[in-house]
Amino acid sequence: MSNIFSRTLDRFRGSGSAATTLPPMDGALRPNTRIDEAEALASLEAPDNILSTPDGILLSSRERLLRLTPEGGTDVIWSASSDITCLASDGSGALAVGLDEGRVLIRGGRHDGWEGTQLNGMPIVAPSAAVFTDPDTLLLCLASQDNRMGDWKLDLMTKRASGSVWKLDLAAGTATCLCRGLAFPYGIVAAEENSVIVSESWCHQVLRIGADGRTEVMLAELPGYPGRLVRDVEGEDLWLTLFAPRTQLIEFVLREDEYRQRMIATIEPEYWIAPSLHAPTSYLEPLQGGSLKQLGELKPWAPSRSLGIVLRLDPAGHAKESLHSRANGVRHGVTSCLPSRDGLLMTSKGGDVVVRAKL
């Protein structure tokens, strides 16, 4: 009862969960141009899911699985039947692949040929992230049970929270649900004491999920929508991508149910007042023209629906440093990254490029 009263009071005062205020980007999150200044390694359509394997650095581009070459090009290894939504390597030759059509499969290794479309009778709809803890155990995020990964804007605009996190024992053929009711879990890493760390996009936070299913918020009130997580090549730090920014306008639209429902019913998703992975490209998009630019120059206060941000977190979840592609940049929609001894590799899904920044 107290929760109902609190939410009603928040809506009346515009506070708490009903507030449209946003956390400032200062301190370790201070805006910079490190992503736009980074070295371009390869230009390709919608790069995503970059990871290191015994066969080299692999990444996805729509339905294609690619390998980065030392010369900066890419070789096509495999073409799937739908877009590749997540990748994981066990470090010894096995690769877990999630597909937008609602399927997870294993290529190579001791479980080569394994394929799943259901977990304990529940259909796989949106596999968003995966990580091996050993060759027989796979941790898997399902972002939603209502919408596929390609319909992530619809999932946000309809305010869904049907995501889940699973632990798959590939040898025994069993699946255990670690947590349900999450608002688009999009990144996962294994942690100590059989716990996992998960990014929850629509709640703008990073969670720790214990072996008993209890959740603890590690990092809250992020200024953007968190994506994938990966451990640093040295030490216990984490790297977290923010694939799109939060804005006061989008926060306001999320609280106006009638307007949002009419927008979804009558306008193409590309032109919704919603986060985007790329900089404006059409005159049909919201908030363009005089709202953003004057005499061809971007206004300093212009709201942007797209950005590129990567955060470095310490073991406690505190931000230590960040890399940005700002509103006037083009390397937006950074969905995954890969730390290496030569720098940080990042996939700009909205900018169609893979870059490497010095650290």
TrEMBL record:
One of its GO terms (molecular function) is hydrolase activity. InterPro entries: 6-blade_b-propeller_TolB-like. Gene3D superfamilies: TolB, C-terminal domain. This is Strictosidine synthase.
